[in-house]
């Protein structure tokens, strides 16, 4: 199994894996560091100093080469391919999101990542009618040439994968690509790994926990031109996927349902808020018609998010930013407006705070200070 | 029972009844004639000449006084009040529509016509859930001070009246106010006549036929600030009511439902087209909040529709208009733009054509030529 890209050396690929697995390094920080330092190796060397500037006393835990090698071995054993976000094989819609996974494991058919995609998500405790609709719509979308993306959960996700298994289905999973979750979907997951594609940004063997699911949801929407929600209660995970889709500039569609069924309150609410009402695959296709070209990576946004000037951050500037931050998320742009520092300087300080474990990033380019975290210990 | 208004003499009221019951006189023509000639009596005298100018050879059938007297007697016997469109007791929202019934029979509580109103309509073959929703929403709207308007049909209409019988309900019926239709709703109709209000523009004893229902539907929407559709198939009568509501400047709301139920296709489609999604009475109240003041009669529109200059119509002008008209409805405004005649002159010619039985009026101030009608016979 070829894990390497012609454009990336083995050692740089290993260093990228070390960088994204290192303490306090998320996708946004990863991309910023890579842009600033040119290579993962150089970024790793800079990490301790950056974290110290952000207020970190104990040394930052850099991911050891040996553990990264072990992870790659495990991936090889399950027959997974490792895609870097600048590889040609990396899915273009996903590369366009601001927190694209720097590295992505793929089991199955890589060609599916380069066809037009529509996500179908919804309630785990879906009604029989909801499941039937999801499966029918997935089948019809498949017949029309769409690859169907979902999250391999019970209920709607299961039905969506089942309906599109023959024509092309992608499962974005919250844990390792080799971990069957939920266990009763194990057969389906194996079938998708053989005939479709299973996508994960987590190390093999990772058992998914609650905090992993929102990250998985951004993959589902990020891989897709649009997201169709079939049955969703208020405040359910499917609505998080819909919100990600909106933020990522993708279409949001929802199937309406009876107000008497709590599983339709979320979808009805989406429609009320402007989502496209969908009764079948034809509605999905009509909505995505204008998006037949895959979204290009938003170059301006990427630059804006990653351009940093590490060296210009003075101690007084850092204190200004720390004072402006609080536990409530604030837009980075708003922060820049209020502090009279250059945007790259602000981003440098935020990056250092993040590496120090004192900053949390939120969707919509917002950040908050982690007040409870031990800012100066490990 | 007092059938008279202080502002209208007995004889003028009788003449108005004769005018609206005369051949080829609809509400729009009625209002135009009354405005032009000042009284129903003068308009009746002018009818034969106007019809002749429109191309009518046989004499127009003017409604005899004796038959009008008989109708008023029948109305008295069932305890109905006859409201003229300029009576103070006439419902203000209905007076605002361009084809308001010149005369309206009312059985029951006249005070209901002057409270804020919301219509609930929908499928006759409604589901148990749809009926329950309609009844619950009607009850909640009633508790919030709304009078609920519906059409006394089976299914949703029945449930809407039932839910609002104690708090205030108005039934607009297609036949005479004394005719129970459908027969199985007889008990409910009697109860509404006693505790609510039954509204009809048809003579007592009229058994409703298919062509009467669209006219009834415009009453339902015309009486209401907004129309909520609960379950409706595609191309069903409830959608006609919704279209009238739109044309009358009223709110349109619809309850969403499963795409698998054909009874929800019409409501889902309304939402797709811009109707407000409603899951309960709170949504209806929120939508009607901005309309707590009853709509005023649109004075400008009324003038525009009724200002005519009977005497200026020359034979050549008439032929110009006849040539421009065809079996497909055309906007009167468009006609005026294309013919280089004054708007009042065009309207005069249209009125004469209508009286001659050669013109059909359509919603949205549109008209078409009746090609199959015998233009020169009775």
Structure description:
The structure is a homodimer of 378-residue chains. Chain A is globular. Chain A has a 9-stranded mixed sheet with strand order 1-2-6-5-4-3-7-8-9, with helices on both faces. Chain A has a 3-stranded antiparallel sheet with strand order 10-12-11. The longest helix of chain A is centred in the middle third of the chain and has 16 residues, at 128-143. In chain A, 44% of the residues lie in helices and 13% in strands. Chain A has 378 residues and is an alpha/beta fold. Chain A starts with 9 loop residues before the first helix and ends in a 9-residue tail after the last strand. In chain A, helix 1 (10-21) packs across helix 4 (65-77), helix 2 crosses helix 3 (40-53) and helix 9 (212-222) packs across helix 10 (237-247). At the A-B interface, helix 6 and helix 11 of A face helix 6 and helix 11 of B.
């Amino acid at each position: 199994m070829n894990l390497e890209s012609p454009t990336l050396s083995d050692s740089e690929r290993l260093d990228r894996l070390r960088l994204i697995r290192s303490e306090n390094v998320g996708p946004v920080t990863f991309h910023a560091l890579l842009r600033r330092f040119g290579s993962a190796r150089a970024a790793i060397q800079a990490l301790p100093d950056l974290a110290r500037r952000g207020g970190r006393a104990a040394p930052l835990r850099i991911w050891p080469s040996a553990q990264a090698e072990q992870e790659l071995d495990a991936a090889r054993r399950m027959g997974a391919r490792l895609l870097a976000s600048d590889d040609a094989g990396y899915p273009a819609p996903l590369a366009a999101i601001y927190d694209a996974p720097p590295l992505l494991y793929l089991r199955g058919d890589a060609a599916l990542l380069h066809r037009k995609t529509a996500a179908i998500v919804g309630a785990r405790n879906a009604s029989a009618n909801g499941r039937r609709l999801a499966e029918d719509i997935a089948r019809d979308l498949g017949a029309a040439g769409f690859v169907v993306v979902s999250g391999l959960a019970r209920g709607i996700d299961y039905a969506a994968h089942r309906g599109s298994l023959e024509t092309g289905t992608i499962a974005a999973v919250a844990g390792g690509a080799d971990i069957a979750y939920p266990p009763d979907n194990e057969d389906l997951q194996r079938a998708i790994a053989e005939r479709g594609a299973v996508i994960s940004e987590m190390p093999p063997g990772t058992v998914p926990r609650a905090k992993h699911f929102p990250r998985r949801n951004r993959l589902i929407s990020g891989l897709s031109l649009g997201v169709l929600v079939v049955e969703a209660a208020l405040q359910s995970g499917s609505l998080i996927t819909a919100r990600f889709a909106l933020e990522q500039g993708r279409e949001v569609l929802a199937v309406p349902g009876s107000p008497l069924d709590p599983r339709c309150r979320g979808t009805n609410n989406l429609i009320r808020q402007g989502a496209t009402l969908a009764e079948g695959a034809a509605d999905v296709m009509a909505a995505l018609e204008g998006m037949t070209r895959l979204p290009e990576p938003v170059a301006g946004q990427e630059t804006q998010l990653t351009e940093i000037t590490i060296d210009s951050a003075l101690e007084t500037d850092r204190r200004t930013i720390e004072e402006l931050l609080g536990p409530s998320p604030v837009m980075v742009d708003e922060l820049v407006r209020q502090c009279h520092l250059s945007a790259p300087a602000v981003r440098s300080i935020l990056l250092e705070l993040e590496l120090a474990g004192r900053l949390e990033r939120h969707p919509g380019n917002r950040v908050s200070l982690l007040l409870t975290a031990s800012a100066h210990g490990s």
